[in-house]
Protein: Exopolysaccharide biosynthesis polyprenyl glycosylphosphotransferase
Organism: Candidatus Filomicrobium marinum
Amino acid sequence: MNIHASVNQEGFESTPDTDDCAEPRSGLSGLAVGTLACAVEILAILATSITTDLIYHSTVYGTWGRQLDATAVGLFIALIVTLPFIFRGDYRLHALIEGARRPKDVFLTWNYAFISLVVLCFLTKTTTIYSRGWLILFYLTGLMVLPMVTSFTSYAVRQAIRQGRVGRRRLMLIGEDEPIRAFMRQINGSGTSVSITSCVNIDNCISGDQDLAATLTQAIRTARERAIEDVIILVDWTRIELVDRISERFIELPVAVQLAAPAPMARLLRSRSMHYGRAATFALSNPPLQPYQALLKRSLDVVVAGLALILLLPVFAIIALTIKRDSPGPVFFRQHRRGYNHKEFLIWKFRTMTALDDGDTVVQAQRNDSRVTRIGRYLRKLNLDELPQLINVLLGDMSLVGPRPHAVAHDRHFEERIQRYGQRLNVKPGITGWAQVNGFRGLTETENDMKNRVVHDLYYIENWSIAFDVYILVRTVISPRAYRNAF
């Protein structure tokens, strides 16, 4: 029998070359930490409501505002915001550590809360009670405050775990030596939400039924003594009888018994099954957008692009006139780009350079590029040169949001060097995108520059939603990063 632990006086052997099998530190429970994190967010939203009410009314009307109403609204918004996160498990310890909540989740929930407030006020005929100016200020301020509170909470929990102030979930690993060591390496570190309290190596007793039975009996006794919460079985999946025997014994305990997945199987377990008649398959990949999602995204594109083109016609005329007066050449620049499923199309842009490259060699604009015209520098800096791509959106070549399309020559260059580069165009390219609002735009001087862009593009594809599109559009207008590297 070989049960690894750090307490040798109990008769257990220490795991060589590692100290991960140790008693967990005492401290706050995961439930207490999650409750505290939820309370912090509620208080932050309430404080934002009261503070913005005070600032708005004291500035505009010279009064203290309506603090009771602000408190009621703040509590209502806090309830609507936190309830979905509670049901999703966002306040569980591992979710807080890993930052499972994404910016688009916060944006979507915050908007849902305010829509709920508007609907409630309409149904109760109380829309005239609350100041619209204050509500707008509360809404905009909360959009900045809530993500900051989320980030701070995640950071504070990680620090508390490192300092031993939070009790981590107790794990027992049971299985063969090498899988145990590999598993420990994967979750090693004081910043995790779990503590490997005991390790049971069954390498030397698998062949003998009595030895294995004795090992499992001792492991169950240890699990009870140390209040183990999860038992992880680490053996070859093909040894079904062994897995069954171990799991059957540990069913005696009020714990979660789990079978660790080898790396090749992890992706399979995240997929879903499909059925064709009586045949069943696992979906290893799916189209990025289901038909109804593609229709929803296309509807947003057509409505917004159509309205934008109508409203911006005077701006188009002014820019066109300025370009013609600034330098000789056409108003618009057309260039072949790759679109959805690598189908080529001609992109529309306002001309900002004296060069009109479109072929096997396309030189990207650089800082202080002499080819950029005087008006072109301003158009590029303000992203106004991209506005004609609204035409491409209406034609169906592009979307408002998606991976930015590159010149065909650049696509051919990078697709041979960067893994999954071609996957960027499994959706329509966009006027703006997740990479652009995070500052990854413009000149790609190194291969790593393009890799960073690809990583963000793939994240967008894998996490698409209408709310994410709206969030990116808003950030395109207001975020300084969206204007970075505009040469």
About this structure: Residues 30-162 form one domain. The CA atoms of residues 216 and 249 lie 7 Å apart.
